[in-house]
Structures are given as C-alpha cells and as structure tokens.
C-alpha cells in the first residue's frame, strides 16, 4: 500500500473518532438538559398556564353574584350571632346586678334590724334646755317626775348623754334604761306632755338613722295621706286618712311608699 493511501485511511479514522467524541458529548449534554432543564421549563409552563386558568376562575368567582350572596349571608349571620351574644350577656349582667342589689338591700335591712335591737331600751327627749355643766341623769329623773309623774332612780338608767353638735338649739338627751319595761311605761305616758301644754318637749324611741329619716318623711311629706304616725319597738306605724281602720307598718322608705300608694 502506498504512503498516500495509508495517510488517507489514518485521517478518516481520526475524523471518525472526533465525530464519535462530539456525538457522545452532545448526547451527554442532551441527556443532562432533558433530565434537569427540560422538567423545570415544562413545570414553569404548566404553572403559568395553570396560574392563568386559576386566576381567571378566581376573578370570575369574585365578580359573581354567588360569592356576594354567600358573603352577605355570612356577614348577616355573624352580625346576628354577635347581637344575640351581646343581648345574652346584657341579660345576664342585668340579672346579676338585680340579684346583687337585692342582696345588698337585704343585708342593709338585717344590719338596720340588729342596730335597732341594740336600742330597744333607749329613748330620746327633745327640748330640755342645755346647761354648761349638767348631769343628764339628774335632769332626766327630774323631768320625768315633773312632766309625766313617773318616778325612777339612777339605778334605772344605764347611761344618758346629749347627742349631736352643740348649737343655739338644745341637743336631745338619749337615755338607755336598764329595763325595757321602763321605756315602755314612759312612752305610754308621753301624751301627757301635750295635755300639759308642753309642746316644746318631745319623747321618741331611739331609732336608727334609716328609721328616723322614714319618720321625718312621713311627718314632712305625707300630711295629706297620713292621719297619724307613731312607733312601737322601732317599727313605724301609720294610719292612712282614706281608711282610718287600717294600721300600716314599715321600717324602710320604699316599703312605706309602696303601702301608701295603695291608699
């Protein structure tokens, strides 16, 4: 074989090898592109297509009357539910407040009853002139003997003293007797003060502040409805003018007003 023929064959072989190498590299790159890049491109395309479709569907639904109706019903339902819950809470609060008020009033009444019980042997005498230095025990003993004809001694008095702030008007004297019967006897004879024309003097049971206010209310505001007012053991009694055969009793202003409203 000639040298020229050998060279030609060698060149052809080298070119074939080069083509094979190029093809192998191309196949590797193609495989790599197919396995890595192509799926990403396909995925993005699918996402884009799907996204547009979903967006279109959402836009159509948002603008639809079906959604508006659904939202409206939901809002109405939530609003009504909130209103019902607030109404329920408000009712519970009102009920609780009313129960609390009733309990407070009950405790006030019980406390007032206990306080009045501690005064069961007490009276107050109004109108006796006040001296700078005085013995209220001696004044009371002398007053009762002179005005009511009732004789008592110091052993019948547990304690006596003036009450209230000093002023130009003589302060009342409060007296606690050792026996309840002594108090009752004096109260039964206090009508003699008016018979003797001693209108400056007044004898009353020693009442709690609540009951004194009730007594004052009846005297000052109910002359057109009440014929007579008096007390027995701390309970205020009053007789309505429209029915003098009825005797009403009360220890609280609210109870008194409710009873008078019936006459």
TrEMBL record:
Superkingdom of the source species: Eukaryota
Protein name according to UniProt: Uncharacterized protein
């Amino acid at each position: 074989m000639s040298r020229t023929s050998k060279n030609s064959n060698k060149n052809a072989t080298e070119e074939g090898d080069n083509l094979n190498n190029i093809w192998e590299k191309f196949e590797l790159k193609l495989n790599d592109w197919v396995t890595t890049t192509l799926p990403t491109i396909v995925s993005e395309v699918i996402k884009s297509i799907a996204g547009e479709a979903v967006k279109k569907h959402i836009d159509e639904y948002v603008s639809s009357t079906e959604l508006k109706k659904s939202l409206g019903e939901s809002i109405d339902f939530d609003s009504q539910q909130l209103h019902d819950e607030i109404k329920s809470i408000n009712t519970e609060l009102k009920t609780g407040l009313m129960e609390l008020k009733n309990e407070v009033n009950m405790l006030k009444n019980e406390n007032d009853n206990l306080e009045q019980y501690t005064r069961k042997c007490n009276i107050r005498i109004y109108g006796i002139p006040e001296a700078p230095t005085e013995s209220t025990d001696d004044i009371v003993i002398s007053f009762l003997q002179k005005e009511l004809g009732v004789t008592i001694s110091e052993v019948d008095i547990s304690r006596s003293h003036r009450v209230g702030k000093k002023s130009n008007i003589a302060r009342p004297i409060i007296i606690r007797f050792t026996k309840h019967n002594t108090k009752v006897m004096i109260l039964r004879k206090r009508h003699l003060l008016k018979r003797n024309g001693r209108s400056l003097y007044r004898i009353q049971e020693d009442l709690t502040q609540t009951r004194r206010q009730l007594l004052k209310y009846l005297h000052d505001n109910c002359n057109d409805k009440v014929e007579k007012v008096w007390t027995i053991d701390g309970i205020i009694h009053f007789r309505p003018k429209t029915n003098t055969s009825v005797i009403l009793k009360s220890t609280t202003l609210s109870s008194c007003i409710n009873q008078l409203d019936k006459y």
